[in-house]
Amino acid sequence: MTDIMQKITLGILGLGTVGGGTVNVLQRNTEKISGRTGVEIHIKSALVRSLNSERICDCSGIQMTTDHLDIVNDPEIDIIVELIGGDTLAKECLEIAIANGKHVVTANKALIAKYGNELFAKAEANNVSIAYEASVAGGISIIKALREGMSGNEIEFIAGIINGTGNFILTEMLEKGRDFSDVLAEAQALGYAEADPTFDVEGIDAAHKLAILAAIGFGMPIDFESVYTQGISGLALEDLKYAQELGYRIKHLGVAKRTENGIELRVHPTLIPEKRLIANVNGVMNAVLVRGDAVGNTLHYGAGAGAEPTASAIVSDIVDVVRRISSGNHSASAVPHLGVAAELLQTQKIVTVSEFSCGFYLRLTVNDEPGVMAQVTQIFAEKNISIEAIIQKEPTDEQKIVQIILLTEECREKLLDECIQEIQSLSAIQAPAVKIRVEHLS
Questions:
Q1: How far apart are CA 256 and CA 156, in angstroms?
Q2: DSSP SS3 for 328
Q3: Structural domain span for residue 162
Q4: Which residues partner with 41 through β-bridges?
């Protein structure tokens, strides 16, 4: 690098797995990144919990501090890279950094989902940018693809496997016949799930990410509170197997769909036809399927977490911000935070759960006696709901109880729930019905 090359300085908040991975990528690819930006990128300081902890990166030349104010108030730092997570200290850091005229790069999906609208407005008022590619799907760069690569499309739907922990659990359950609790314990031991796995297995993490993608896809403010969220902790192994028998896979899917009634925002277990590529995304991998009116279906696949896959997205954002700074005209060269100028974002009507429209998988536990199937199908007929497929399992020698599995054609959830309520009143029903939504994604 030459003496006349412009230098841009970073301060990193958080030097754990992702922070350390970011330092490694920046250091290993220094010459390539400088060649692509025409700028020397220098890491000046890093916020850490303890000055004496072991690191996964070379920290020589980086000033370490346990006080975030040392970094966000440092006049020599141009870009703040926030990797501490959470939505309290991180929010404070971003607000101070923005007020100080610093650009921000963050991987914090919870922060963006809950406070993105507010933070973006502050950034625009201070003529700085918040880059957040790593907040959704790790290294896949789905935000750039959706916000920039598909900017000429009207987005019809987004469907994503956007939590690797949940996908790992469902994959292990199906492929190895293991129970949920058993696989969850392994996911925790492997570091895929936290000691408190609620955000992953109950869909909150995926809901954060879906809210961000939906805002970009539909030109609306981020609306995390309106995302319907259902986890996978209640899924039974037998339902994964029955779905496979019917030619489907069950995935924990985030769905954002434009409909005649408004926008559906939902995260829940979903049956997907096994012939769809996204149905065959296994383990900790992520995938996002986007349909645009011009491009049709596009599938974006890759590692959704991990030190260097996430660092790849972070460094990509750093490169974008560096180019804006070096251009000398930040506002003219910056893509709007949500792909649409803030004043043109339009609040959308969000469809309530009772008005969701899709197919359904239904498992009934009934007495093995004549006439039960006729009663069930009659209830569906009265609601004008078509049944696509039925499986009836034979009872064991010891039991006189059978499982009936049905797939319905697309219908409103309210009507399906009315059917279930009537079915549950039948004397032959021996357990609560199991209901799982179906998406064909065709």
A1: 9
A2: coil
A3: 142-303
A4: 8
Q: Could you say which DSSP state residue 140 is in?
A: G
Give the long-range contacts of residues 53-58, CB within 8 A, separation 24 or more. 55/15, 55/20, 56/17, 56/20, 56/21, 56/24, 56/307, 57/15, 57/19, 57/20, 57/21, 57/23, 57/24, 57/27, 58/23, 58/24, 58/27
Q: Where are the alpha helices (DSSP H) in 290-356?
A: 307-327, 330-333
The rounded mean pLDDT for the chain is 95
Q: What is the pLDDT of residues 215-266, one digit of tens each?
A: 999 999 999 999 999 999 999 999 999 999 999 999 999 999 999 999 999 9
121 part of a folded domain: yes
Together in a domain, 335 and 222: no
Burial label for 54, CB within 10 Å (0-12, 13-18, 19+), is exposed
Distance of CA 399 to the CA centre of its chain: 43
| Residues 274 and 364 placed together within one structural domain of the fold | no
Q: What is the pLDDT of residue 332?
A: 44
204-218 and 109-125 helices cross at what angle (nearest 10)? 40
Residues 173 and 271 in one domain: yes
Residue 4 has a pLDDT of: 65
Strand partners for 286: 302
| Strands of the 79-82 sheet, one edge to the other | 63-65, 39-47, 6-13, 79-82, 103-106, 130-131
Give every CB contact of residue 316 below 8 A, 6+ residues apart in sequence: 133, 141, 144
| Residue 233 within any structural domain of the chain | yes
Tokens for 152, please give them: 């000429």
- For 43-57, how does the pLDDT look when each residue is reduced to its tens digit (9 = 90+)? 999 999 999 999 999
Strand partners, 146: none
Residues in the chain: 442
Q: Would you call 209 a catalytic residue per the annotation?
A: yes
Distances (CA, A) of 167 to 161, 172, 180, 273, 308: 7, 9, 12, 16, 20
Assess whether 153 and 276 both reside in one domain: yes
Q: Which of 109, 209, 251, 257 does the annotation list as catalytic?
A: 209
CB 339 within 8 A of CB 151: yes
DSSP string, 11-51: EEE--SHHHHHHHHHHHHTHHHHHHHHSEEEEEEEEE-S-T
Whole-model pTM? 0.95
Per-residue pLDDT for 32 more than 60?
Answer: yes
Tell me the pLDDT tens digit for each residue of 313-345.
999 999 999 999 988 765 545 789 999 999 999
Statement to judge: residues 185 and 39 lie in one domain: no
